[in-house]
Amino acid sequence: MPAITSVDELEATPHAEVFEERTPRTVRLRLEADDRVPAHRHPESNVILHLLEGEIELTLDDEVYPLESGDIAQFDGDQDISPHAIDDSTALLVFAPKIDS
């Protein structure tokens, strides 16, 4: 049977785990306008960020990428990552484990 969750019902802020099973890890990120997540890394993961609502500036190392509601970004977690909310924003992030090739 599938695990089904409503993003709107997740209450923890800024991060809420979407599913108990954490492979792949799925997180709802909610930021108020002008909130910023300090630079950090997820070196064992490829990351997908789907901005559900709002507007953010996604800093990856030294580059800044503007994202609007509906945008999806895919990137390597082995770089400095820092989202900054321009407006109140909600995103869904998936941390997919890297597979050795």
Automatic annotation (TrEMBL):
Pfam families: Cupin_2
Domain Cupin type-2: 30-86
Residues in coiled coil: none
InterPro entries cross-referenced by the UniProt entry: Cupin_2, RmlC-like_jellyroll, RmlC_Cupin_sf
Domain of life assignment: Archaea
Name of the featured protein: Cupin domain-containing protein
Species this protein is from: Natrinema zhouii
